Amino acid sequence: MSRAPVWRAVAALAVIAISLALAFTTAPRLGLDLRGGTQLVFEAKDSPTVTADSAATDRALDVLRQRADALGVVDPTLVRSGEKRIIVELPGVLDPRQAAEVIGRTAQLAFHPVLGSGDPSGVRDENGGLLKLGPPAITGDGVRDAVEQSDPQRGPGWWVSIEFRDADAWQRLTGAAACEPQGDPQRRIAIVLDAEIISSPPLDPSIPCRTGIPGAGADITGSFTHEEARDLAVLIKGGALPVPLTLVEQRTVGPTLGAEAIDASAKAAVAGLLLTAVFIVAVYRVSGLLAALALACYGLISYAALVAMGATFTLPGLAGFVLAIGMAIDANVLVFERAREEHDSRRGLRRALDLGFRNAWSAIADSNVTTLIAAGLLFWLASGPVKGFGVTLAIGVLASLVSAMLITRVLVQGVIGRIGPRASGLASQGVVRTWLARRNPRLMAARRVWLAIAGGLAVVAVAGLAVRGLNVGVEFTGGRLVEFATSKPVPADVAGQAVTRAGVPSAVVQATDDGVTVRAARLGLDEVARIEQALEPHGGAVSKTREEFIGPSLGEELRRNALIALGVAVAMQLLYLAARFRWTFGVATVLALLVDVIVVAGLFAWLGKPIDGIFVAAMLTIVGYSVNDKVVVFDRVRELWTARRGFAAAVDGAIVQTLPRTVNTGLGALFILVALMVFGGDSLRDFAMALVAGIVMGTLSSAFVAGPAAVVLARFDRRPPAPPAGRTAPRDRTGTGAVV
Q1: 20 to 30 A from 347, CA-CA: which of 10, 60, 195, 336?
Q2: How far is residue 738's CA from residue 740's CA, in Å, rounded to a whole number?
Q3: Locate the Protein translocase subunit SecDF P1 domain: which residues (predicted)?
Q4: pLDDT in tens, 603-619
Q5: Domains along the sequence of the chain with CATH
Q6: For the chain, how big is the Rg over CA atoms in Å?
Q7: Is the dihedral of CA 296, 325, 333, 576 positive or negative?
Q8: How many Cβ atoms sit within 10 Å of the Cβ of residue 122?
């Protein structure tokens, strides 16, 4: 007797036990779009003296980390991305103006002697006058410490106390200035920060000439508030950046919006999981019930894997986690449908189930590889939170293999000998397969009609792209997008007038029942504050819930990466299918993929929906799902196509035999997506809409585009493929139809 079932059971228990331990002992790491805060992305630029390379960026990163710590931000995250970019995440910081000003300022500090006043080429002081400055006597590197201070005995206000490393340099600078007469500009010391004079105090009359101020300390005075004095001390103490930094991306999300996103995703996951479980139990009965239990284990395993990796959960990542629940049922459906085909009076349920797992493995492996390709491209080329979608999708694919091929197998094999054939759900072919086998449709006889209809849909979609165009979001165009929540509705025309009065007449304004969205190519942080104030008389309590800024250079890069990702995805699918099957199958699949992608893009063009990073993630998921479905069909074609059976008949047979799997898997994913559309916000709703359209098109294009195209291309490659080794060919037969 084989001991393989025992070892499978031990492995399944070990995986579940480890996952439980990780899930209950490791706290998830939430992204800023879920817990609230500000994310800043800086890009290092060359200076006249320093080249912005990885070493200079690392030095700048150390300076930024000191500034973030000095600001008192709890658990800030600062990492270098690539050679020249730094990502700064500041939880709880909802004022991007302060964050960007303090964190990213170059902070080149210097103390200069004043040579005169009134020179047109001079620098304006804090009072607006022009001062001619001498070379810097002390730079920021000569400052040991800086701290903000106040003393009621000295009067109101704050100042910054500085401690120098070289007391002699400070004494020489002040001793020379003290030799000038009272009231002379040359008796002042100019403190310059980033080419701007922040203070130029005159020396006290009591300071003797040539003696100067002894000691290693000085005070920078001015009309500072506590926050201004603290920020100045942070900049001085942190030191100057070795290279200038440019803000290329900024995202701010309020904590309320993040909490709502988590709540919506949890509701969608529970609702989708329940609907999927009810459906699969109705179709496969006891086997379906055990698969539903394995599906719950899948959720546990994938969650545990993500927290163990230290992955950051983002809003798109949660959407990917929820969506993967619906897609995880695919492997179970493939196995159960294959077991139904293998079962007859001479071959018992246990043997049929073993053959189902063995013969379905090829299609399961091929289809999951195509999804992993899409996930890998998202992680490689996407930016920001969309990377999280690629990570969760990839982890979900791997966890679904463990769930279906290990846990489901252990559970079903453990009870299959203790229940009757009818209760197992695997003894009959089911209503759909029985009806199809009875009708025996010959779809390929009308292949030119199907291709013409697909071409017509593509033409309508292209017309939408040409007439309406794509509503490209700021992520690809560059600019700023701000969402305001209002306590009462603001009409669109009133909101537009308020934004115009705030000084941004070119902004695109959208109003809903509970908020206003403003988007513009050039929208500064000061204008955002004015818009918020202008909306208050009309919207009651106004609060900023989300803000995104994308610099022009980054927008162009993201747009280029999105096109590269889609192009590489299609090319890699073609190469993979050509290697695994035949080149004609790969070309047919790519043609069907193009129809899928064009129709979804055309739908968004006609509806005016935004095209952003989440939409690109949806499109790459559609590519993976659509190829997944076509892999299953062509895998069956490879089995059925022989010298005695023509290729068109083999394609017809493959479509008929795999349609129950396609319908059952598609419904599992659609349950999840409908739940996301009901419970999710606008971005998740658009994401779900794109995937619903893509899944429907991907399912139809397998039978009505990829199949007919493969038949048309078959005349260029007439050699039938050799049957796969070690697999039993499925038998065409009808069943009782007792199982739904």
Answers
A1: 10
A2: 7
A3: 58-114
A4: 999 998 888 888 888 88
A5: 37-104+245-251 (3.30.70.3400), 109-240 (3.30.1360.200), 255-469+555-716 (no CATH), 480-549 (3.30.70.3400)
A6: 33
A7: negative
A8: 19
